[in-house]
Amino acid sequence: MTPDKPIWKSFVFFEDKCFFVSTIERDYDTYEGVSRGQETLVWEYNWEKRERGDKIIWYGGHICDHQAVCRCLINWGTIPSEEDERWGRFRE
């Protein structure tokens, strides 16, 4: 297996909250063997302590998800569901 490769890391601030958004490229085990792809994860982040929260608050794929999540957090401090029209606007 190939080591994970960091693609992009962002810290997003909204009011009194901070979020850590991370996209990596990693191997996935599938029924057909090992596949490689991108994964985007989001945590709340304590900026003063330099610690991310224990709970992943959002999970997605490509770098375009990373960009969309950052835009949503900057604008609203939350990530809308994929059915929400706001998500689609930022995902394009």
Shape: globular
Tell me the radius of gyration. Answer: 14 Å
Give the oligomeric state: single chain
SSE order, as H and E?
EEEEHH
> Numbering strands along the chain, what is their spatial order in the largest sheet?
1-2-3-4
Uncertain segments? none
Structure annotation, total helices = 2
Describe this structure in words.
The chain is an alpha+beta fold and 92 residues long. It has 2 helices and 4 strands; from the N terminus they run ββββαα. It has a 4-stranded antiparallel beta sheet with strand order 1-2-3-4, with helices on one face. A hairpin with a 4-residue loop joins strand 3 and strand 4. Helix 1 packs across helix 2. It is globular and about 45 Å long. The termini are far apart. The relative contact order is 0.19.
Quick recap of the structure?
Helices cover 23% and strands 52% of the residues.
Q: How do the strands and helices of this protein lay out in sequence?
A:
Layout lengths: L4 E10 L2 E14 L2 E14 L4 E10 L2 H14 L8 H7 L1
Antiparallel strand pairs: 1-2, 2-3, 3-4
What are the key terms here?
single chain, 92 residues, alpha+beta, 2 helices, 4 strands
